[in-house]
Specification:
The C terminus is likely disordered. Strand 6, helix 4 and strand 7 form a beta-alpha-beta unit. The protein contains 18 helices and 16 strands. It has 4 domains: about 120 residues, Response regulator (Rossmann fold); about 160 residues, Rossmann fold, CATH 3.40.50; about 60 residues, Helicase, Ruva Protein, domain 3 (Orthogonal Bundle); about 80 residues, no CATH class. It has about 450 residues and is of the alpha/beta class. Bound molecules: adenosine-5'-triphosphate (ATP) and magnesium ion. Adenosine-5'-triphosphate binds next to helix 7 and helix 15. This is Sigma-54-dependent Fis family transcriptional regulator.
Length: about 450
């Protein structure tokens, strides 16, 4: 049975909707205030929330901003007649539709049907995607970010086009996961996906790792060995951290990328393979080309299609979705206020760091809510110099806080030691982050507090 939560302080309207929706076959709960709505939404799942944007106890818009990205429900906003600007804002904050008072039941029913359809489609899409991907990988591509949606679209297009693809992005943004996804979407999905970790192969072994060697090619080559490119035949060759390939190897790789043929070390025969090359890097290859560290002809061969994966701080709207995704496995929950803290943090380690933070907290939590064990870490300061002047009391306080953070990484523990509330700890950590941010930007408002 599909469920609806009504958040409306007009008793008559609320009761009327409740009655009609029940007889239309919905499970309905109804509350009069934002506070009760928050409570119910935290404890239950609703398919649709009908939200009056002007609640007497506060702002419905505020509630929408807070919860639209955080819970799985679809929000339909009820506005006063002629309240267009609020409606626009509501849509921006994540509502799927708005209806203006007074409205007929048909209008309401239509709007709910549309919302339910959208929700079902999203869910199907999601299961389909996860199903397509490796079952044990716990991957999600659910997103509210236009930037990331574009990335997914480009990956799908690249998968079809069978061209060489370069994935660029900071550490932990999901380059390898997207490379695997691309492979799974492509016509090569049944063939191998072979990873070459360019950062871990020593220069003198590169050639034989990539292209293999014949027996006796050099001392120690007791048997013929197939190279990674040969193993990838028919499939995808993933050159991870391609920026780390030494120049000497780049020339050999270039020849292979151009001709798709190679010789094993110590071999005479030219071998052809059919592989698609997907490369990944967190370095600026163009800059490296300028410095003479990366061959421009190689760059232009591998980046037929280039996809830039945004860091998590540029797709903050996805942080609540990811947090909930990582929590699902542990059957844990998180409070909205903590979720907001997490959404503000810049996540230099991106999805990997977020996942580690959530998993760690989940493992430490015995109860249902992981909040006590979460502490969005302060940003690393940019300056080496501790203060550059005699420290003020505030400096010392923040420095001590940074120390406690490094030592315990738990807001509840830090609060206990300092004899203050968790809220205060969060506030101070925010201050610390802000100050570090300011001093990175060269503002004179305070020196960075070094964390080491
Ligand atoms: N779409 C996703 N769904 C779930 N988890 C993800 C997703 N993308 C990334 N992660 C998490 O982040 C981790 C890092 O992803 P991945 O190895 O693809 O990043 P990367 O960009 O290759 O990073 P690096 O540059 O450090 O190698 C994964 O192991 C996984 O835990
Ligand atoms: Mg990687």
């Amino acid at each position: 049975m599909e469920s609806v939560l009504i958040v409306e302080d007009d008793r008559n309207l609320s009761e009327l909707m409740e009655k009609r929706l029940r007889s239309a076959g919905f499970r309905v709960d109804s509350v009069r205030s934002g506070r009760s709505a928050r409570k119910l939404l935290r404890e239950n799942c609703y398919d649709v929330v009908l939200l009056d944007i002007r609640l007497s106890d506060g702002d419905g818009l505020e509630l929408l901003r807070e919860l639209a990205g955080a819970v799985d429900s679809k929000f339909i906003v009820i506005t006063g007649y002629g309240d267009v600007s609020t409606a626009v804002e509501a849509m921006r904050a994540g509502a799927v539709d708005f209806i203006q008072k007074p409205f007929s039941f048909d209008i309401l029913q239509m709007s709910i049907d549309r919302a339910l359809k959208e929700k079902r489609l999203e869910e199907e899409n999601l299961t389909l995607r996860s199903f397509l991907f490796e079952r044990d990988h716990e991957i999600t591509f659910e997103t509210r970010s236009t930037l990331f949606r574009k990335v997914l679209e480009m990956v799908a297009r690249a998968a079809e086009a069978d061209v060489n693809v370069l994935l660029r992005g900071e550490t932990g943004t999901g380059k390898e996961i997207l490379a695997r996804y691309l492979h799974k979407l492509s016509a090569r999905q049944e063939k191998p996906f072979v990873v070459v970790d360019c950062s871990s192969i020593p220069e003198h072994l590169f050639e034989s790792e990539l292209f293999g060697h014949e027996k006796g090619a050099y001392t120690g080559a007791l048997q013929r060995k197939l190279g990674l490119v040969e193993l990838a035949d028919g499939g995808t060759l993933f050159l991870d951290e391609i920026g780390e390939i030494p120049l000497s190897v780049q020339a050999k790789l270039l020849r292979f990328v151009e001709t798709k043929s190679f010789r094993r070390v110590g071999g005479l025969r030219e071998i052809r393979v059919d592989v698609r090359i997907v490369s990944a890097t967190n370095r600026n290859l163009r800059e490296m080309v300028r410095k003479g560290e990366f061959r421009s002809d190689l760059l232009y061969r591998i980046n037929t299609m280039e996809i830039e994966i945004p860091p998590l701080r540029k797709r903050r709207e996805d942080i609540p979705l990811l947090v909930k995704h990582f929590l699902r496995k542990f059957r844990k929950k998180i409070r909205e206020s903590t979720l907001r803290e997490l959404s503000e943090y810049p996540w230099p380690g991106n999805i990997r760091e977020l996942r580690n933070t959530i998993e760690r907290a989940s493992l430490l939590t015995e109860g249902e809510y992981i909040d006590e064990h979460i502490c969005a870490p302060p940003e690393e300061p940019g300056e080496e110099d501790l203060f550059g002047r005699l420290p003020t009391l505030k400096d010392l306080e923040l420095m001590y806080l940074a120390y406690l953070y490094r030592r315990f990484r738990r807001a509840d523990r830090i609060a206990e030691i300092l004899g203050c509330s968790r809220r205060t700890v969060f506030r101070r950590l925010r201050e610390l982050r802000k100050r570090n941010g300011d001093s990175e930007n060269g503002s004179a408002s305070g020196s960075a507090v070094h964390l080491d």
